[in-house]
Amino acid sequence: MPWKFVTPNIEVEVSYKKAPNKLLAPKPPISMRTWDPDRLVVEVDENGFIGEIYRKLTPVTSVRVVKDRKFLWKGKGKTLATETRYVDPETGEEVPSSEVLEILEHYGYMNLDDKANEVEKEMIYHFAETLEGVKMVRPFERSKVLHIPEENWVPAVSIEGYLIKSVYEIFSDKKDVVRMLFEEAEKRLKQDQIGITGWSWGGFNQCYAFAVPYIAEGKFGWLVKFTEEKPMLLHKQDIPAKVKIPIKEVPTLKTLPPVQALVVAAKSRKK
User: Fold this and answer.
1) Which residues contact 119 (CB under 8 A, 6 or more apart)?
2) Exposed, middle or buried by CB within 10 Å (0-12, 13-18, 19+), for 72?
3) Which residue, 25, 38, 1, 5, is CA-closest to 180?
4) Is 228 exposed, middle or buried (0-12, 13-18, 19+ CB in 10 A)?
5) Is residue 46 predicted with pLDDT exceeding 80?
6) Contact 168, 223 (CB under 8 A)
7) Neighbours of 174 (CB within 10 A)
8) Strand 145-147 and strand 3-6: pairing?
9) Nearest-5° angle of CA 224, CA 225, CA 230?
10) Rounded CA separation 263/152 (Å)
11) How far apart are the two ends of the chain, measured CA to CA in Å?
12) What's the DSSP call for residue 81?
């Protein structure tokens, strides 16, 4: 399902794909191993002379181990006591529980009421606790349109200070759409602007979407950067001396308000 990219100048359907990250400090694949206390390796040359003797390295794997569990009585919600026997499948001999390690290989989720009855998804309603009390709410629909009116194009510096959670590329294979995307990118790059709009992937979270044009290696493109939070600056300090060169402050907001409030804040700082 394509997205629709809407500005005061264009309204086009675009493809989208999550942009992969390039590791700036590459590292080789790392594996975990340990010395096997019961296995020695003896090196012998072609003449039969014994060389180095060392312990064999064996691979180590991290697994999900069940630390705690409980069993509920369906229809009653009561926690049940259990008695479990562990048996060697080859000999039938019982194995003490102290020698058993339970490993979680597969798991799933179920919605249960207070009596351990399964509740179908269609029968579940959601409530939010607000200052005005508990209110019934419903999830946001998944966004499909990047609608950025003219008043939502703000200085590119506005994106600084936000934690970018994911980055997508938007593009098209149609020549006329490519031309319109380039013309829009050219205009915004000349004005040093990025676009801001609200977005939701569904569920109960909303975020900001920043539409960012760029030129790289003689080609152009559009990035859509998603964010829903910013760092809390708790240790700002006084500047110890007068600064001769003016320092440009990054626009800041204390909360995540509606998009329009962000736009007003960013533009007021530009003035």
Assistant:
1) 111, 112, 113
2) middle
3) 5
4) middle
5) no
6) yes
7) 13
8) parallel
9) 160
10) 6
11) 40
12) P
Distance CA 12, CA 211 (A): 14
Residue 262 corresponds to which tokens in the numbers above?
Answer: 């962000």
Which residue ranges make up each domain of the chain? 3-20+142-270, 72-137
Nearest to 255 by CA among 234, 232, 225, 237: 232
Q: Where are the alpha helices (DSSP H) in the chain?
A: 175-190, 259-270
> pTM for the full model?
0.67
Specify the residue for token string 């019982």. Answer: 94
Contacts of 247 (CB under 8 A, 6+ apart): none
* Residue-wise pLDDT tens digits, 49-83: 655 656 677 777 777 777 788 888 888 888 888 88
The single-letter code of the amino acid at 148 is I
Judge whether 42 and 50 are in contact, CB under 8 Å: yes
Backbone angles phi and psi of 146, in degrees to 5: -90, 90
DSSP secondary structure letter of residue 235: -
pLDDT tens per residue across span 92-116? 999 888 888 888 788 888 888 888 8
Both tokens of 238, joined, read 């006084």
CA dihedral 163, 168, 169, 172 (to 10 degrees): -140
Handedness of CA 61, 62, 63, 68 (dihedral sign): positive
Q: How far is CA 217 from CA 19, 73, 192, in A?
A: 17, 64, 19
CA–CA dist 213, 182 (Å, integer): 9
The CATH number of the domain covering residues in 3-20+142-270? 2.40.290
DSSP 138-178: -PBPPP-EEE--GGGEEEGGGGTTSEEEEEEEEE-S-HHHH
The residue behind tokens 């691979």 is 59
